[in-house]
Design brief:
By secondary structure, the chain is an alpha/beta fold. The chain has nine helices and 22 strands. The radius of gyration is 23 Å and the shape is elongated. Residues 353-378 have low confidence and may be disordered.
Length: 378
């Protein structure tokens, strides 16, 4: 048969698990500049240099995201002093589901230790606490850590902090992660998983984006493929219609999850380890952040690039379509029902001698597997 999917092993960024714990750095007479999108904001030391541990860098090249880390020219410094002597800084409160997990939650690892801690200081995003209070997952995740939004201080003006302890992230997007990130996920997911049987539901589930109104990317005719999968015996679920608890329990119960690349995959951080997932990616390169979550949770994820995507440019964005959505569903069902065939195809895709043709020679007699992660220290 002519295949519609090709297994991809290419990584965008780096997926490195480090044994070096994230730093806690204390700064005397720190300067706090409030959030300004694409402008100068963050926490600076007494010499007006950005506190490196406070910045959310992207990738091993440590690229900046919507932040200028140079002290703004013409600003002499904060006049007002913070009301508390000592704060613990936990980064930016990002209202986007995926970024709240991999950016915001990644700094909350000090909450895993029992005992008193200084008042918590953060940076807001557009809308501040009023916006976050409408994000039920934010309220749920904070509650699992014994926190409320009211416990997180945000200043809307420059402030001098007499003593500031900065928690570096346990996960840096597209670069590295420490096992503390997995411990955070376990602490948050524990209440959701109480009494939930793991891997008891053999019927596969497909996590669909078809009803998602606010999205970064999706396949516009995905629902046609989902309809065919449904007729073949796959349950179709729309994650945005489920509560945070329900999403975690769904991943726990199902032996096989099929989905497109997206923030819903980060929910696996709160689920039991060893999830088995088939993931469709619009591009051949896999964002290393997803691989970091897989490595932390020992997930068995396979990433595939659809070979016949059609892209159409509109005024606001590029739209993607499956050329043959039903053929895509047929191949997914072969992979689900006949894992030995899927293993053979994957083996061919991993081979250095494999070519770009979609016509498939006979399956090899000995199937090989290719490791996607390397575990390093430091």
């Amino acid at each position: 048969m002519r295949r519609s999917l090709k297994r991809t092993f290419d990584i965008w960024g780096e997926a490195r698990i480090t044994c070096e714990p994230p730093r806690l750095r204390t700064v005397e007479n720190a300067h706090y500049l409030p959030f300004v999108h694409d402008g100068p904001w963050g926490v600076f030391d007494a010499d007006r240099r950005i506190v490196e541990e406070s910045v959310d860098y992207l990738g091993p090249e440590r690229r900046l995201q919507y932040q200028v880390t140079d002290w703004p020219p013409g600003l002499s410094g904060p006049i007002e002093e913070a009301p508390e002597e000592h704060y613990l800084y936990l980064g930016q409160l990002n209202p986007h589901y995926g970024h709240f997990i991999v950016n915001t939650l990644a700094r909350f690892w000090p909450m895993l230790e029992a005992g008193d801690h200084p008042p918590l200081l953060c940076h807001s995003y557009f809308g501040g606490h009023a916006l976050l209070s409408g994000r039920s997952f934010v309220v749920d995740i904070l509650d699992r850590l014994g926190l409320r939004l009211a416990d997180l201080t945000v200043f809307d003006r420059p402030v001098r902090v007499r003593r500031l302890t900065v928690a570096a992230p346990a996960l840096q997007e597209m670069a590295s992660a420490h096992p503390l990130m997995a411990a955070l996920g376990d602490a948050v997911g524990r209440a959701s998983l109480d009494g939930v049987p793991v891997d008891t539901e053999t019927r596969p589930v497909y996590l669909s984006k078809a009803r998602l109104a606010d999205y970064v990317q999706r396949i516009e005719n995905e629902d046609e493929m989902a309809d065919a999968l449904s007729r073949a015996g796959v349950d179709i679920v729309y994650p945005e219609t489920l509560s945070f608890d329900e999403q975690i329990r769904l991943l726990a119960r199902r032996r096989t999850i099929v989905t497109s690349l997206g923030s819903a995959l980060h929910t696996a951080l709160f689920a039991p380890p060893g999830r088995s997932m088939i993931v469709l990616s619009q591009i051949p390169q896999i964002n290393a952040t997803y691989l970091l979550v897989d490595a932390l949770k020992c997930n068995r994820s396979r990433y595939y690039h659809p070979q016949d995507l059609i892209r159409v440019q509109t005024e606001n964005r590029w739209l993607a379509y499956f050329a043959e959505p039903r053929r895509m569903a047929d191949e997914l069902m072969i992979r689900l029902d006949h894992p030995e065939v899927s293993d053979g195809w994957d083996d061919l895709d991993a081979s250095a001698t494999w070519h770009t043709s979609r016509s498939i020679p006979p399956l090899p007699t000995r199937l090989r597997r290719r490791r996607m992660f390397t575990r390093r220290t430091g």
